[in-house]
Amino acid sequence: MALVVITGGARSGKSAVAARLACEKGSPIVVAVAGVGDGDDEMAARIERHRADRPDDWTTLEVAGIPVSDWLPRVPDGACLVVDCLGTVMSGLLYPSEGTVPTEAGAEILAHALVDALTARAGDTIIVTNEVGMGVVPVSESGRLFRDVLGRANARLVDVSDRAFLVVAGRCFDLSAMPRDAAWPTD
Fold first, then answer.
1. What pTM, to 2 d.p., does this model score?
2. I need a labelling partner for 110 at 20 to 30 A (CA). Which of 16, 69, 71, 148 fits?
3. Considering its fold, how many domains does the chain have in total?
4. Interval 40-55: pLDDT, tens
């Protein structure tokens, strides 16, 4: 089993990188997506564009608001699972209905359960996620909570991954090859 994390900003090319990598495996591919709620035509169009870019033989699971323990067992161990993307899947868990805001402790419990399940999976897994630490500070409390929880989940995933990449403008930086800590320059 291999765990690969692909992070980056919005529209950076993360999904395309994940799709190319998944195709290299040659095994059946299952894509877990959050789906879209009623009335969000713009997000529905985005999801449809991603779906149209994928090969027809890929299986898509819409997992919005569904606990990982309910959908992950439906993915065969021999399949390559692509979670695209962790942020939208997590958002569906943290905010299952309009106006609900979890406590930080509750949000961390949900995030840990999701990360633990994905990292324990026996099959190959590619996790696409948003790099949330490079943008502006969200104006709302729920936005800041989401950024913090997803940022910590991303760090946990990268720490335990077999490979991790940061995608910027369609180019991959191999985070696995980079040091974890900064070092003073040597003379």
1. 0.91
2. 16
3. 1
4. 788 778 777 777 877 8
Mean pLDDT score across all residues of the chain: 90
Among 127, 130, 129, smallest CA distance to 163 is for: 127
In a domain, 183, yes or no: no
Tell me the per-residue pLDDT of 94-131, one tens digit each, with 9 for 90 and over: 887 777 788 899 999 999 999 999 999 999 999 999 99
Contact 5, 154 (CB under 8 A): yes
CATH of the domain at 76: 3.40.50.300
Asked whether 5 and 127 are in contact (CB, 8 A), the reply is: yes
Cα separations (Å) of 167 from 64, 96, 140? Answer: 25, 29, 27
* Residue 90 one-letter amino acid: M
The residues carrying an active-site annotation are 50
User: Which pairs from 109-113 meet CB under 8 Å and 24+ separation?
Assistant: 111/149, 111/150, 111/152, 111/153, 113/67, 113/68, 113/69
